[in-house]
C-alpha cells in the first residue's frame, strides 16, 4: 500500500470553464444624461441669467466628467464643462450680488 501525503484526488479534478455570456451588460447612460442636462442648464443660466441654473450645470457637468469612460468623447464632456463654468462666470459678471434661492421671489 502506497502512503500519500497529498489529500487531493486527481480523478475528481475539473477544469474551470467560464459560463457562456447570456447578454451584454446594460450600458450606463448617466454620463450622457448629465452631459445633456449640463448643456441645458448652462444655456438657461446664460440666456435667463439664472445663477442656480448655472450652478446646476456645473454639478451636472462634474457628474458627467466623473462617470465618463476612457472610450467616451472627451471633447464633448470638456466643452460641456467649460460651457457650464462660463455660465457661472457670466451670470456673476452681469450681477455680482449673492445668489438668492429661486423661491425667494415667490415669498416677497
Automatic annotation (TrEMBL):
One Pfam family matching this protein: ASTER
Keywords linked to the UniProt accession: Membrane, Transmembrane, Transmembrane helix
MF terms (GO), sorted A to Z: protein folding chaperone
Cellular component terms per the entry's GO annotation: endoplasmic reticulum membrane
Superkingdom of origin organism: Eukaryota
Gene Ontology process terms (BP): protein insertion into ER membrane
Region (Disordered): 1-27
Compositionally biased region (Basic and acidic residues): 1-16
Subcellular location(s) of the protein: Membrane
Entry similarity comment: Belongs to the Asterix family.
Protein name in UniProt: Protein Asterix
